[in-house]
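User: Here's a chain of 222 residues. Predict its fold as tokens.
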Amino acid sequence: MAFGLLVALAACDGNSAGTTADGSPATRAPADASASAASASSAAASSSSDAQQPSWEDETDPERRLQGCLVGTFVLDRDAWSAGITALLERDLSSVRVEDSGKVTFELKADRTYTLTADDSRTVSFGSSPGGDIRWVLGFDGTESGTWTARAGQLALKTGSGGRLAADNEMSIDGQQLPTNALPVSGTPWSQKLTTKCDSDGFVATPAGEPDAVKIVLTRLG
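Assistant: Prediction complete.
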């Protein structure tokens, strides 16, 4: 079983309207000036808002929009990650407990290169089954870099000469370690093709063809 990514969307709009005042020209002039100033201020704010809007948001081609949206720096949402691991294990285990710490930062650059940095990212899970008590450790540490492409709603990463991010991925039942191919999540998940949805807050992906896989949420830092 592999895993992938999820993010929440948010958007807000603001509208302003001027007002007019009745009365003599003498009393009307200040009100008119005030309305003009308010209108100018509103226009300036609107212009500033437009200037801050990423150019990819105006793209009508879904592929170009996705490629533009993915450019940025993102951080793994640890709460969403823990919740996903918990839900995965609760399918087969009881008394599930997950301890999660560390940080994962993912930078996708406009030149189609990427850097994935894990700072002592560590998830330790516990649970009980008829076969015994389980302890599962999934950790990442170090830096991975390479190139990325995004087509037809999918993000694909190709690692460089340094190889994949160092992973610690092991599970034991009553102290007896299981073989790596028996683990529920791959120790090299970032190398997969990920079905991806992206917006101004971050992006969401799931491994291609596995819509029920554990999801990862990456929120945008810049």
